[in-house]
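ok so for the tutorial part 2 we go from a plain amino acid sequence to predicted structure tokens. step 1 is just haveing the sequence, like this:
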Amino acid sequence: MNRIIGVLCLLLAGVFATATAAQDTERYGKQKVVYHINYDGGPESKKYRGAMRNIQNHINAVGAENLDVKVVLHGNGLGLLMSARQNPALETAVSSLKGQNVGFQVCNNTLKGRKISYENDLYDVWEDDIVPSGVAELSRLQQMGYTYIKP
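step 2 — the prediction. this is what the tokens look like for a chain of 151 residues:
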């Protein structure tokens, strides 16, 4: 009898956990978000790693299937992808987010102005990731209904 009660308790706990996860998804619904990074990451890329954690926490709360995330990098923000070439923790964070369909968009004005090669100097950037202007891209995405977040 105790075994049956124990099994029933486990089943009820599983149903409750599933219902709670469904409530979270319903609470937040579908979202479109643009994260803006244009700052220096500081010693050991602490600020960059914090921003990557914010994005992952956002995905965890809303669900990757309910979230369209873009990260726009310009100015000093390109340091995130430069640092990811030497910092394994940052590389892993960027790769993990990309694996969850997070798009990283890099400002061409910054590339040209600072003479940065996206192929040689930045981690995992492709021609399709380059946008003409980071600030103009932020505006365009907000006009398309993306919520602006600056971590």
